[in-house]
Structure formats: C-alpha cells, structure tokens
Design brief:
The chain has 249 residues and is mainly α. Helix content is 84%, strand content 0%. The longest helix is centred in the middle third of the chain and has 43 residues.
C-alpha cells in the first residue's frame, strides 16, 4: 500500500520535475495500470509464489527450533552419545575417529556460533541505525537483514534491496543513506567480527560453492543455510583421512 501511494506521488510530481524525471515518467505506466503491467497474466502464479515462500519460511522456522532442541539434548548427554557410537567401531580405529569427530565438531560449531552471533549483532545495529536514519519499518528491515546474513553470498543483496525500496518511499537521500549504512555494517562484520569466531580462509571456497549449488537445488533455502558447515565438515574429514593415508605405518 505504501509503495502504491509513493508511486502515485511520483506520477503526480515528476511530470513537472527535472528533465530526467520528465523523461522517466513518460516510460512508466499510470498508477491504475502499474500492477497489471508488472504482473500481466501471471497474477495467480505470483500469489502462489508468495504463499509458497511464506509456508517455506514457517517450515524453516520449525526446523530451526527442532535443531535447537536436539542441540540441547546432545549437549546434556554428549559424552554418553559419543561413547555409544564409538563403541560400534573397531578398537584400533576409535582414537582416530574421535580426533576426526572432535575436529568436525569444533569447525562446524565455530561456524554456527559465528553466524548466529553476527546475525544478532547485525539485527541490533541495523535496527538502531534505521531508526536514527528515519527509514520506515526499521524493525522489519533489521530482521530481514539479520536473517539474510545467514544466507551465503547472496545474503547481503537480499538485505539491501528491501532497504532501498522502503527508503525510496521516503526520499532518494534516505534510501541511499540507509543502503550505504547497511553495506558498511555487513562489510565491517565480514572483515572484523567474523575472523574472531571462524577462519573462513582455512576452508575451500570452491568446495563450499559446489556443495551450496547441490544443496540449494535439492532443498532450496535450507540448502543455502547448511551448505557452508557441511562443506567445512567434509574438508575436515578429508584432511584427516588423507593425512592418515599419507602417514607411514
């Protein structure tokens, strides 16, 4: 509704505005036709897509809660669980299996701690910054930014687009300031905060991209989220196995 009102104001003001605004307004459809011009005959498909995204988001939230509870159970009885499945291995392999498991647990745990802490910090900083800037819906935009941070590679773009779109409903200056502020926060997190918790450069970016492509195609958003820790676990496993194979007996 706000976007529709903003477009209506643009349609009223730009015909008597600057030369560039007058040129652009001639290429845009009138407000009564904007929705139909954007969607054409695909209205039902777009509605279904948004409905599917909403349902998918609810599924992701539910699965995230399941992971949290399973993590709590694992933490409470970690030693017992480890002894149980190590007992299934031959005695001569248990020490090496424990080393591999410890490395995977440390690497994957570091990644999850890093991402969750950064996500919370990003949400708080963006929310406060948006409130100071005066952009509309600062809390919603901050939550979007915090969740987008968890999505590798494309997350920053997902965070910036709604900021600019909502900001333009106020004015262009607000949209640019809020977008630049978002970029600065994400860059600072990447450069200074993430290295404190997770050394990304120790893991192959190529392997991460390959796993991400595979899992994203199979599981969608869930695949995006689990690809980096899974790639880290695979690399730790390969390092230990190859190191073991190269060690003379």
């Amino acid at each position: 509704n706000d976007l529709a009102m903003a477009y209506d104001q643009i349609w009223k003001q730009w015909p008597s505005g600057t030369f560039i605004q007058q040129v652009l307004i001639k290429q845009l459809p009138p407000p009564t036709q904007i929705f139909q011009s954007l969607t054409g005959d695909q209205t039902i498909s777009i509605i279904q897509t948004f409905a599917g995204f909403t349902a998918g988001s609810a599924t992701v939230a539910g699965e995230f809660m399941v992971v949290i509870f399973l993590s709590i159970y694992w933490s409470l009885d970690k030693v017992h669980f480890e002894r149980l499945w190590f007992s299934l291995l031959p005695p001569q392999n248990r020490r090496k299996a424990r080393e591999i498991w410890s490395g995977i647990e440390k690497g994957v745990g570091s990644y999850f701690r890093s991402e969750l802490i950064q996500s919370v910090v990003v949400g708080l900083l963006l929310g406060f910054g948006f409130w100071v800037i005066g952009i509309r819906y600062p809390t919603i935009l901050a939550v979007i930014g915090a969740v987008a941070w968890l999505i590798p590679y494309v997350g920053p773009l997902i965070a910036i687009i709604p900021v600019f779109v909502i900001g333009i409903t106020v004015n262009l200056a607000t949209a640019l300031i809020a977008s630049i502020f978002t970029i600065v926060i994400l860059v600072l997190m990447q450069m200074f905060v993430e290295p404190l918790f997770f050394r990304r450069k120790d893991y192959s970016a190529l392997l991460t991209v390959l796993v991400l492509i595979l899992l994203a195609d199979m599981f969608g958003l869930i695949g995006f989220l689990i690809a980096p820790p899974l790639a880290a676990a695979i690399q730790i496993l390969l390092r230990n196995l190859l190191g073991q194979a190269s060690t003379p007996s």
